[in-house]
Amino acid sequence: MTSRYLTIAGGLIHVVGPITDDRWWSNLGVFASTTRLHNPRFELELRLEINREVFRPIRSGESSIAYTRHDLEVHGEGSTVWAWYDGEHAGFLAVLELAVFWAVHRMGGIMLHAAAGTIDGLAMVMPGPSGTGKSTAARGGFERVLSDERIIISPDGRGHYDVWGTPFWSD
To answer: What CA–CA distances, in Å, run from 122 to 73, 133, 150?
Structure first.
């Protein structure tokens, strides 16, 4: 069984199960790893399955997330997310995004549809609907672009907030 790690927002998502195409993982760039992050802010295990007949999420009654559509099904409780997807790239990315959303929610953060970048060490966030120029603006004036599609804002434990990029970018 394949075991990989996604390092995001200072946390660690341990991805266990089949990824149909290894290029999908390599496209996640600096977020993807085969080694474990030391002292992560949070940990979550994402258990993937592409055979729907053997997909059996374990439910304990904890606070949970559940989402279903034609090409995927996701159930999360505590620090584990179980996901069936149809083996296609779009389903894999949607499952991954839902797992990240759940992990961020559990640590008191939020994932937004926004672009963000840094200027002089400060993050600038530009939320907005698709097609309003977030990507164009982000690429035009920041020292470093964190993301042009999805960002994470999370408490830092000292009364402030951190802004994090994600591997989810516009096309």
So the answer is: 38, 21, 18
